[in-house]
Specification:
Blueprint (H helix, E strand, L loop, with lengths): L2 H15 L7 E2 L3 E7 L1 E3 L5 E10 L4 E8 L6 E4 L19 E6 L3 E7 L1 E9 L8 E12 L3 E12 L5 E2 L1 H11 L4 E2 L3 E7 L2 E7 L7 E8 L12 E4 L2 E7 L10 E9 L4 E10 L22 H15 L6 H16 L3 H33 L11 H19 L18 H18 L4 H12 L3 H24 L1 H4 L7 H9 L1 H19 L1 H21 L4 H22 L19 E2 L2 H10 L3 E6 L4 H11 L2 H9 L3 E6 L5 H9 L7 E5 L7 E3 L5 H5 L6
Parallel strand pairs: 13-20, 14-20, 21-23, 22-23
Antiparallel strand pairs: 1-2, 2-4, 3-12, 4-9, 5-8, 6-10, 7-8, 10-11, 14-15, 15-18, 16-19, 17-18, 19-20, 22-24, 24-25
Helix pairs in contact: 3-9, 4-5, 4-7, 5-7, 5-9, 6-12, 6-13, 6-14, 12-13, 13-14
Length: 696
């Protein structure tokens, strides 16, 4: 026999001794085969096999939950299989990808290109000689259309030894590593009508996250809906849109897929019970970063200072600044530059301390409860009630009912004592507390970016904004040629001081309206009673005897305590769209309702507003209630939604954060059929609204 013939015979004998390697089956749009981590396995041994699919370009198959349409692959054991159906384990599903079929309307979950589905098999205990796994892979494969396909595939294994298949074993191991693992933390879901909040708590958080997506096992949520993500120090919070308002009693189950900035994907299987959001799962901004954070730090600081300067012109701050103006005139009358400078420094200190405390509260609240917005202090009824009383008391002081700080009748004589310093400091505190919710129209985008940044950046930005607010008076205090231009004190000050009491009373009335929206008319009535008590205490204080002054202090304490306690009572229902009922068929905003209206092909205008937002009320009066805007909305079938943020609402706060806004006002415009909104300027006019594009 020739040498070549001998080699051929030897090679054939070797092939005969090896397990049969079946060629992939071409089922139409996929090449399908069975592979195994072993070439041989012992009787009773459990090993991993896998269904390997090589898909045509542009075609896909489905995950365990296909989404809105589709069917997952399944394995059907054939009668001739030595490994029976009960010895074939469940498929270990790799992490799925989003498969948008119709953008914004139909979303599927699955795989394209190459995919391997591992599953365990158990060799029969009584196996002798080769065993065959004989199955039919039944699956739906789709491109623009879907085609059901079946592939009859086999796998042959020897049972006289245990021998690894290095190549296929590594491939199967790679795809098992792409599957989900149990979540080592805690998951909880807050179900509020159709707006659900899924919070995931994991010690140390999720790292540098690019994106987070929840893939449900069932159909509890709308699959195409966006899932805004807010990161926290120890986890993350996702906003989900429920598919059915009645699905509120069972845990939310599925897989959370976390993609890091380097492209690494990790999947956690969760079962989230109902409950409040977990602490430290939000407050650090959205996943993937925000464009506003890319602005250079010095530009943000300059912008903050500019916003603080403009804050001096806001109507909610001007009445307080009148107090500062009187204090400055009084300080100048003393004639000592050191006293004037100290007055400006104490005022600046009051402003900076207040903005620093505000930043600290924001950092703490966002870590504990989620996104925080400016104006949160005016969403708290007791705080608003106390502010009403403070503004009323300041008005009484301006009217001359009692003295605060230095006396107008003894101008300049008390500047060196602590009363003058305390008065300047208090004025700075009051200006910051009342003025901080008013900065949104000028710093909306920048504040939205900063609010999701680290704590040092938040503190720096807010202190820069406070410095801008205090800067005019600080400059006035330190430049002699400027403060010497101030008018000399005289009787005119007493008249002007009394005049400025009326803006203070109007500010108190506006805050009382906010209080009514927050806590009802009962709280307003109690606050009015408290105001009367303050006036009575001021009258008693003027008696200048010990007993009346003690009674004045007791009366004042009881008034403040009683008003604050009544303001904490449960609030009545708030009609979010009532302010527009006369002209628009407005309805409350929800993410689910927006999705429905977009699917109907209607344009959508959303007003994120609050009764304590002065800019919101100006836009409402000058633009949103105008005849031109009303006619534009009616002629084009525009859906008008109102997101009323007068009271704290986590869903609205999350939506504001999603669009990089620190508070209201915010206006969104969805052209007909578009699920991507246009964020409008904070200051509206009729021409801007009536020229909005009706189509994308």
């Amino acid at each position: 026999m020739k040498l070549s013939a001998c080699l051929a015979a030897l090679f054939g004998a070797i092939l005969f001794m090896l397990p049969a390697a079946a060629a992939p089956v071409d089922a139409g749009h996929a090449r399908v085969e069975l592979i195994s981590e072993r070439d041989a396995a012992l009787p009773g041994e459990t090993i991993y096999a896998a269904l390997k699919m090589d898909l045509d370009s542009g075609w896909h198959v489905y995950w365990l939950n296909a989404g809105d349409a589709g069917l997952p692959p399944q394995l059907i054991a054939q009668p001739g299989s030595d490994i029976e159906a009960d010895a074939i384990g469940e498929i270990v599903w790799p992490l799925p990808h989003l498969l948008p079929v119709v953008e914004g309307e139909i979303m599927d979950y699955g795989y394209n290109n190459e995919v391997v589905f591992p599953f365990p098999i158990t060799i029969p205990e009584d196996a002798m000689g080769p065993v065959t796994l004989d199955v039919v892979a039944d699956y739906l494969i789709c491109e623009d259309t879907c085609v059901p396909e079946r592939a009859h595939v086999k796998l042959k294994l020897e049972t006289d030894q245990s021998a690894a298949n290095t190549r296929d074993g590594e491939l199967i191991g790679k795809w098992i590593a792409k599957s989900d693992v149990p979540f080592p933390g805690e998951a909880r879901v807050l179900k509020k009508n159709l707006d659900w909040t899924l919070s995931l708590r994991l010690d140390g958080g999720f790292g540098k996250v690019h994106s987070i997506r929840f893939f449900p096992f069932g159909h509890d949520i709308l699959h195409p809906a966006a899932q805004p993500v807010e990161l926290g120090r120890h986890g993350a919070t996702l906003s989900l849109s429920a598919a059915d308002i009645t699905a509120v009693s069972k845990p939310l189950e599925g897989v959370v897929v976390i993609e890091q900035e380097d492209g690494t994907r990790t999947g956690y299987e969760i079962s989230a019970a109902e409950g409040s959001p977990l602490p430290d799962t939000s407050g650090l901004g959205p996943a993937g970063g925000m464009a506003g954070l890319q602005v250079a730090a010095w530009k943000l600081i300059l912008l903050a200072i500019l916003g603080g300067l403009i804050l001096n012109l806001m109507p909610c701050v001007l009445p307080v600044l009148s107090m500062k103006a009187f204090g400055m005139v009084s300080a100048v009358s003393g004639g000592h530059a050191g006293e004037v400078r100290r007055h400006g420094i104490w005022y600046t200190a009051g402003v900076l301390v207040s903005f620093g405390v505000l930043a600290a509260i924001i950092v703490a609240l966002r870590a504990a409860t989620g996104p925080v917005t400016l104006g949160f202090q005016l969403q708290n009824a007791p705080v608003v009630a106390i502010l009403v009383l403070v503004m009323f008391a300041v008005g009484l002081w301006l009217m001359g009912m009692f003295e605060l700080g230095t006396s107008l009748q003894n101008l300049g004589s008390g500047l060196a004592d602590r009363d003058g310093d305390a008065g300047a400091f208090f004025t700075g505190v009051l200006a910051a507390v009342v003025g901080s919710p008013c900065v949104g129209p000028f710093l909306g985008a920048a504040l939205g970016a900063v609010m999701g940044h680290s704590a040092p950046v938040v503190f720096t930005f807010f202190l820069a904004m406070g410095f801008g607010l205090a800067l005019p008076f600080l400059v006035l205090s330190f430049v002699p040629n400027l403060y010497k231009l101030l008018p000399r004190p005289g009787k005119w000050m007493d008249t002007l001081k009394q005049f400025f009491a009326f803006p203070m009373f109007l500010t108190a009335a506006w805050l009382a309206k906010v209080l009514g929206d927050l806590a009802g008319s009962g709280a307003v009535a109690w606050t009015a009673t408290g105001a009367v008590a303050i006036a009575f205490a001021a009258w008693l204080w003027q008696r200048e005897a010990r007993l009346p002054r003690i009674l004045a202090v007791v009366t004042l304490a009881l008034a403040v305590f009683g008003v604050a306690e009544r303001a904490m009572a449960p609030a009545p229902a708030l009609g979010a769209s009532s302010a527009y009922a006369a002209k628009y068929e407005a309805e409350p905003w929800s993410a689910g309702r927006v999705q429905s209206l977009v699917a109907e092909g209607r344009p959508v205008f959303i007003d994120f507003t609050a009764s304590w937002c002065a800019t919101c009320q100006v836009n409402k009066a000058t633009t949103l209630k105008s005849r031109a805007v009303h006619d534009f909305f009616a002629a084009n079938d525009v859906a008008f939604l109102v997101a009323d943020f007068t009271r704290k609402d986590p869903a609205i706060a999350a939506e504001l954060a999603r669009h990089q806004r620190a508070g209201v006002p915010m206006y969104l415009w969805y052209p007909a059929g578009s699920d991507v909104p246009q964020v409008l300027p904070e200051i509206l006019n009729q021409g801007l609204v009536t020229s909005l594009p009706l189509t994308p």
